[in-house]
Structures are given as structure tokens and as C-alpha cells.
Design goal:
Shape of chain B: globular
Strand content of chain B: 15-25%
Largest interface: A-B, 39 and 47 residues
Strand order of the largest sheet of chain B: 4-5-6-7-8-9-10-11
Radius of gyration of chain B: 21 Å
Helix content of chain A: 25-40%
Oligomer: heterodimer
Number of strands of chain A: 17
Radius of gyration of chain A: 23 Å
Number of helices of chain A: 13
Order of helices and strands of chain A: HHEEEEEEHEEEHEHHEHEHEHEHHHEEEH
Number of helices of chain B: 11
Distance between the termini of chain A: 20 Å
Chain lengths: ~475, ~375
Amino acid sequence: MGKRGAAVLFMNRKVTIRVLLLAGVLLAGIGLRVGAQSPSATGHVTLAVTNAKILPVDGPAIERGTLIVRDGKIVAVGDAASTKIPDGATVIDASGKIVMPGIVDSHSHIGDSGNITVSDGPDNNEGTNPIQPALRVIDAINPADPNIRSALSGGITTANILPGSGNVMGGQSAYVKLRGATIEEMLIPGSIGGMKMANGTNPKGYGSRGQAPMTRMEEAALARGIYEKAQQYKLHWDAYNKAVAAGDKTAKAPDPDPGLDAVVQILDGKRIVHNHTHRADDVMTVLRLSDEFHYRVVVHHGTESCLVANELARRHVGVSYTMIDSPGGKPETINVDMSCPARLEKAGVKVAFNTDDPITNSRLLLRSAALAIRGGMSEDAALKGLTIYPAEMLDLQSRLGSLTPGKDADFVVLSGPPFSVYTHVLQTWIEGQKVFDRSDPADLHYATGGFAVGERYPKLNVVAPAAGGAQ
Amino acid sequence: MDGSAQGGPGLVLIRNGKIEAVRSGANLTAPAGYQAIHGVFVTPGFIDTDTTTGISGAYNISADQDQDESTDPNTADVRVRDSLNPQDLLYRYVNSFGVTTLQVAPGQRNPIAGVAGIFKTVGPQSGIATVDQLALRAESAMVFNLGEVPKETYGATRKAPMTRMKTAEIIRHALLDAQQYHAKWEKWQKDGSDPAKQPTLETKSEILAEVVSGKLPAIFAAYRADDIDTAIRIGTEFHLKYAIASATEAYLTTDAIRKAGVPVLLGPVMQAPYTHETANVTYENAALVSQANIPMALMTGYEAYVPKSRVLVFEAAIAAANGLGLENALRAITISAAKLLGIDGRLGSLTAGKDADVVVFDGDPFEYTSHVQTVLVGGAVTYQRTP
């Protein structure tokens, strides 16, 4: 806990008192979280959430169910009457509440776009070169960004944090849990992240400076160029490795290139491309490239993706959809339509929802799925679009996305039905640890807003900043 | 709902564009000769008290952005009615979510930004309605902007204002000039209106004279609590009839607002806090301001990017679910809004004699999964859902 507080202070060395108050709040909040769970005599940490309506996602809703968690993993989910609560378990009676899996946000910029209270500006668009596969978003994420804590208040437990859309290939994304004082603690073990790509309007920003790309043609040409280069790079390394294996001591290793290494991972099917795209013709360009180079891709935002739903369905390409309240803001989003996710569902396309935070706020991802229901989507697809489908889009379905024994104990306790405006996220848990509790006043202000105000906020219980913190 | 009545089953009769009668009770049937529209929840048309929708177009390219004449910090003489495009996609879009009336206000960049107007979203007749046909009050208020945006706009090129001090000074200076101008003309009239001695006409002072004489209300856009205080300071000094718009931090300074007796138009809370002055935005602002007994309505303001416009009923829903409650949230976009804009004689409630601006829902109007079924403006269907 001290570590996280220290990180906050470090990030804000030349800070004002206001930010220091924030640090105090963070320390207080973390303090409340630690100690929520302690090992029993058996050496295991066991938790039982019982009497809740459970939406396990991998099966039908359980009207009155029990969820058993041991050492951060789910060990049992079932009817409350027949699911035995182990001796020594910490029991949480969630009568009248609803429990669902932790929400997986398949497209976010929390921590790299910068909450205005802690940031000197966004760090997600390196607008100096349109092809930058060597960039890693982990080098831009600030784990102390309060937007991360806000996201917990919206029930998000996992996020795909991506570089921005100003580049054709903008860098490597990171699959993270929303906990930890360092990016290393946040990263999901074993995951390598995805690759951010973008087409359409945004990368054409270079054109206004007389640089490439100035047109969609050039965007696609640049993308093809890097994949061809990576194919050749792979060929050279394969030849070298083969020669070494054959005992050739004179074989010369190709020059290493960390960017091309990441692109080779795409070509090898290990790294998924997350492609920002809006217009239907741009979606088709995404598909044309992935067809040509045989890589796995997810269509992100996908404003007009429903117009080419059959093309997506037959390739089994999913859409990570951003639900926007009104059309426009730029010409390529002029056809924003709340019914688009429903039309994708009907065509057999898997739809996940994303926040694209800060474009929509991480506290409101349940709302995005609910608006898709308003647009005609089924409740089942909307729930899966917050959980198992985005987990699949990040290759994390074996450990996330449903309340299935063996998976991570990431779950959310809701006050009511998941798609009602009147429902609040009451608690958020990651791997058996409570990371958000609405009944804690400090946490509440991350749910409602106004967390940076300090003692002026009428309901905020301010904890004095740590001694010596005011340099 | 009207100004006082609780909701319940009922019937709204509409004739010739006006509400003819409102009857409560279950199992009512429409009298002969009336076309029947059935719904689960019927509300008055929603009133957005301050927005750039209609002058800040959907495409967000220079061709359709007409909200900010940021060539001079004082553009008191510009009028929204000369920018408004009722054919803009967003103008029609918000109508499909029940917004039937908007006060369209100039953008955020100028300390003295120009004259707002109050318009219906769609004309009662088929075909294209002109701006003046849509107007309830084509010149409804003078808009002043405080805080971060004006100083960022001009300060970046070392033009005034580059500080909040200067923004306030520009406004005070112009209002003092307008007072003198007003006095000069009054004296000229008192002295016999000799055409040879007529004072020089100043278009900016001419309209600001209407503000200092209390004929034209003022709106001060202010986000931070100290900027709200600046608005109160200026409003009090010049005895203005005014409201505070956006008011992100109103919840922190409710005592000062209540003491000044000034109403607030609360800005959207789902907007991303891209500016420092909106960093403390809270979903509970409307509830806390309402609990402090400050007259209050909601507004959608200006959106710079995606989404290009906020949807009033969506913002009210967040307020409803975060302490304000359904009925008060409904008031904040209907009758309270109408009262604050001075149009409650015609709009804001389902009351006999008022304009038949009506929204029909298939459920709770604030639920995410409810649908707007039908929107009527002046008794004419302007939106009909096709499931």
C-alpha cells in the first residue's frame, strides 16, 4: 500500500496541495482494502458470496446462488441450497444483489491518456512516425492515474490499454488487471498484449503537415509495407536459425529489430491486431489486409461495421464496439446508430463493448451494453459483450470472462439488474481481493466524481496527507 | 405531469397544436374523432436550457462550425439566430430523444460571446421551417464566458485575455461602457431627441445596454467554484438578471449561489473532463444543488469531438440515478427549465392551453432500455419509432 502512495507522490513531485490530498485519499483507500482477506488455519484464503442472483455467463442465471473463491480463483458456483460453504470461509451475504463476472474493457486509454489532475498531457499518440510497432504502451501507463480507480467503480477489472489512433501502427497494447502500484503488477502474467492499428481519418493527421499518410490508400500501403518487411525479417531469422541448427558456425544473425519482432508475433498468430476503424469501406480495408497477411484482427469502434456484418461473420472477426450518444464529431462517425450491435449480433458477429476511455467514461460501460439492448440486442449478447467476448478478443478466455471454476475470481456485486440506470456497482473484486466498495466514502467519490476536491467536498472523509509529503 | 400533479394513468387530449385537456384515471379512452397514441410514460417535451446544437454541426469541420467567433473577445453583437441550421443532423437527432425546445447559445471562447435564442427543434408544419418560425424568443440572453476557455483561446497568441482577471475586466469594461451609452441615449431623448445631436451608434454597447438595463438576461458560463463567484460578483455589481451555466463545481459553493439568488443551468456530467476546470465533475451535482434549494435546470452545452452532442434525457437519467430521483430529474428538463427561460406560460408541462409538445415512452423515460415511441411538437408527430 505504501508503494502505491509513494508512486503517486513521485509522479507529482512538483505538485500542489490538491494532488497531495489525492495521494492521502489513495493511501486511505488502499488501507481499507488490505486486510479484507487473511489466510485461515488451512493456509488458504476462502471467500463465499452467497444468496445473490448470479450471472455466471457460462450458463443460465442462478436465482439464489453461491460463489466460492479460494486463493484468488473461483472454485465453485452453484445454487445456494446445494453449494457447501467451506469451513473458515469469509461469508458475504449478498441477498437481493446481483453478481456478474468482472467487466473486461477491450479498448481503453486509462492511464495513458492522462486524467487532467495528474497528467501533463496524453502519452498515447507518438505522432512522429505512422508505423511504430516497437512502442509499448506499458512505458506510458501511469498506475496512479485516478481514472484507473474510477474504472473499478464501473465494475471493470481487466482492460486492454492501447496506444492512440493517430498512427497506422501505433504500438503494442497491454492486457492488465486494474490493480497494482506498477505496470508490472498490473500486467496479466503470460499475456503479451496486442498491436494497435488504425485507419480512416485519424492517421491522415500527418497529411495536414505534408507528411504521409495523407490518404486512406497510403495508410493501407504503409500497413502492407510493414507486414512485408516482417515477412522478410522472419524469413532471414528462420534461415539463420536453420543454419545454426545445422551446425553452420559462420552464419550471421540478422540485425535484431524489436518492432519487427512484434509484427512477426502477429504473423505467427500470437499477437492480435486491434484495429481502430469506423467507415464500412475502412472495415473492409482492415479485412483485406488481414486476409492478405493471415493475421487475427478485432475491429474496434466499428461505427459502420454492421453495414458489412456478413463479411465479418464469415471471417469470424469480432467487433469491439464503442457506444456513442450522438452521431458526428468527425465525418466518419456520422452514421452512429444504436442498433448497430444488434444488427451485428443477428449476423452472427461477436460484439464486445469498450469505453475508449476518455471518449466514454469507464464508469459507464454497463450503460453502453444497455443502450445496445435499447437498439435491439439480446440481454444475453449484451452480457457476453462485457465479459466472455472481450476476454476472447484478448486471448484470455481461459482465465477471464465467466464465473467458471478455475478462472480468476474477478467479479462485480450490483445493487440491481445490470442494465438499469438505477443500478450501482456496490463492490468490485479482482482475484479474490476487494478493490472497490461503494460504502467506503473515499471509493464513492471515484464512482460519482469529484475525487480531486479534497476536504471541500461535503461528503468526503479526508485523511491527512502522509507526513513529509508536501515537498 | 404538470407543475404540481403526480404521475399516474391518464389521457392527454390535443387539438390544434395545443393541449386541450389532461384527464387522470385508468381505462380512459380517446373520444371520437381523436387519433389515439398509446404509451407507458408520457412527458412534456424536454427543454435544453443551453446548448450549441444547431450551430455546432455534426460533421465538426469548419464548414459546419458556427458557434465561436473567436476573432474578438467581445462579440456582443453576434446572434445565434444568424448561425442556426435547423437542418443539421444533430438538431433533428435530439428531437428523436424528446428534446423539443432548446436555448441555443454561442460557444465558450469569447468573454462576451453574443446573443442566445430559444427555438423549437422542429416546426409544427411539414416542410422546412425557418429559424424565425422556430423561434420562441430569437434573442433570449447575452452569453458571457469565464474561466479556462477564453484565456486559452486568446492567451495562446498573447492576446487578451490570458488570465481570468482580464476576462472579468473585459466584461466589466464593456458593461460600464454600456451603462454610459445607455445614459447618453436617455439624456439625448430627455433633451428632445435632436437628430443633429444623436449619440454615435455602437452596436456592441447597444445590445449590452439591454443587459445592464435588465431587459435582456445574462448567462455566465462558469465551471470552477471561484469562477462561479466571479459571475456572482459581476452580476451583483451590475444588477443583472442572470443565470450561471455549466456550473461544474456548483455543489461546492451552494451557499454563495443561494445567497445571490441566482439560478443554475447544470452542464453534462458524462462529458469527459478535458479541461482542468471540469476535473471535479460529479454525477451528484444536480442532487446536491437541488437539495440546497437552488433553482436549477439541465443543459447539454458544447461538445468538441465524439459524441458531438449530449442527449438531454440521458444526462437527466444520470442525475435521476445519482440522488435527484425521477420526478425532480424530469422537472429539471421540463417545468423548471421552462420557468428559468421564462417560457412556462407556453411550455414545460402537460397543462391545458400549453403547446402540445409531448414525448411518449414505452417505459421509464430514464431507463437505458426504454424507447421514445413518439415525439410531438405543436401537436404534430415529429418522430415515430419504427421497431
